[in-house]
Specification:
163 residues, alpha+beta, two-stranded antiparallel ribbon
Length: 163
Amino acid sequence: MAKRKNNKKSKQGPPSYNNRRALYDYFIVDTIEVGIVLEGSEVKAIREGSCSLKEGYITVDLQPPRLTLHQVDIGIYQPAGALNHVPKRDRILLAKKKEVIKLAREVDQKGVTLVPLELYFSRGYAKVKLAVAKGKATHDKRKAIADRENQRDLQRAMSKYSN
């Protein structure tokens, strides 16, 4: 039997992409994990590390019931050549019919939207963690920044005190 090569890349695991901007702009009400339909070159590009969820958003269609991911940029995969994908195409998300209908009801409320929080691989399949979110007002964002700075100052003071 052949010995396996000790590869450093396999120790790291596949990449995960977070949408930190969504956590700043929205209050997260609920999260759900769904699958995503990708082409071969898109999977390779994501594993290579060229993906951005920053501008992404999700729409709900009831006829037929489905979720669609818009404006997520998956960069091109150079070795694919002419068989490459379109970087910012709309991608279908895989969820059960009952979940889609439930999300559609939640999104119908004023100020509520669906945003992608994270794209990652689970057991070889690409997954998207999406959130039902409510928009933050400017004063809420300022309060979040102030709380974060106070927490950092507290941590600095504690580390000086413990040393």
